[in-house]
Design goal:
The chain is α/β, with parallel strands linked by helices. The protein is built from seven helices and ten strands. Strand 9, helix 7 and strand 10 form a beta-alpha-beta unit. The structure holds 2-amino-2-deoxy-6-O-phosphono-alpha-D-glucopyranose (GLP). The site of 2-amino-2-deoxy-6-O-phosphono-alpha-D-glucopyranose (GLP) has 14 residues, from helix 5.
């Protein structure tokens, strides 16, 4: 694991975007693995800027998102489809047909199966991840098997509490989601994980220095050959003095 510590979010977001720009510019048909949450927003802003400046072209790009809430429509203002369209896809020249997010509003088993077969056929060149305060990546909560593929999961109470800030109340936060599994994520050729702020410090410490255990899903990344962690001083304060 390579760890890069940034002085501010601006520089971190620019560096994160740069990894994606390099992959897009050197592949004929790049496949990107994308994430939601507040953490990657700055990176998406930088990618939009790069597109506007003519540094990157999304015409041949295909994307796969990590996860989607069950029980809310894809047009719901807090669905991850809405998040991606609003914060990224609507501002670049990507064909929406090439953007994939699990369909969590119909037959869930069929949606998981379809997503797995799509991921088998399309190797992700670069995947961005955030991390939950309980160590989840995507929505793979503690206890998720390392061998898991795309599946439906019940969200931890902690995750629902963390994400309640996006809804009117915690009661509105969905109880379930479809998520790429840990085995799907580990197949990505390159992974960048972004962790910002003191609230991520404990999860980050356990992910990097702790045992590799299903109780800390992100710890599986210790076994991936190409992971870069982009972080700030607050998030690594328990790692360095
Ligand atoms: C969400 C997402 C994750 C994300 C994490 C952290 O629930 N499913 O993909 O990494 O929680 O979110 P944030 O970046 O807002 O802290």
């Amino acid at each position: 694991m390579e760890i890069r510590i940034f002085e501010n979010k601006e520089a971190l977001s620019r560096a994160a975007a740069q990894y994606f720009i390099e992959v897009i510019n050197k592949n004929h048909k790049p496949v990107l693995g994308l994430a939601t949450g507040s953490t990657p927003l700055g990176m998406y802003e930088k990618l939009i800027e790069a597109y506007n400046d003519g540094e990157v072209n999304f015409k041949n790009v295909k994307t796969y998102n990590l996860d989607e809430y069950c029980g809310i429509d894809s047009n719901h203002e807090q669905s991850y489809r809405t998040f991606m369209n609003t914060n990224f896809f609507n501002h670049i020249n990507i064909d929406l047909i090439n953007t994939n997010i699990p369909n969590a509003s119909g037959d869930l088993d069929a949606a998981c199966e379809l997503y797995n077969s799509q991921l088998n056929e399309n190797e992700i060149d670069i995947q961005v991840l955030g991390i939950g305060t309980n160590g989840h990546i995507a929505f793979n909560e503690p206890g998720t098997p390392f061998g898991s593929k795309t599946h439906c999961i019940e969200l931890d109470q902690k995750t629902r509490e963390d994400n309640a800030r996006f809804f009117n109340s915690i009661d509105e936060v969905p109880t379930h989601a479809i998520t790429m599994g840990l085995a799907n994520i580990m197949k990505a050729k390159k992974i960048i994980l972004i962790a910002i702020g003191a609230q991520k410090a404990e999860a980050l410490r356990k992910m990097i220095l702790g045992d590799v255990t299903e109780e800390m899903p992100a710890s599986i990344l210790q076994f991936h050959p190409d992971v870069v962690i982009l972080t700030d001083r607050e998030a690594v304060k328990t790692l360095i003095k």
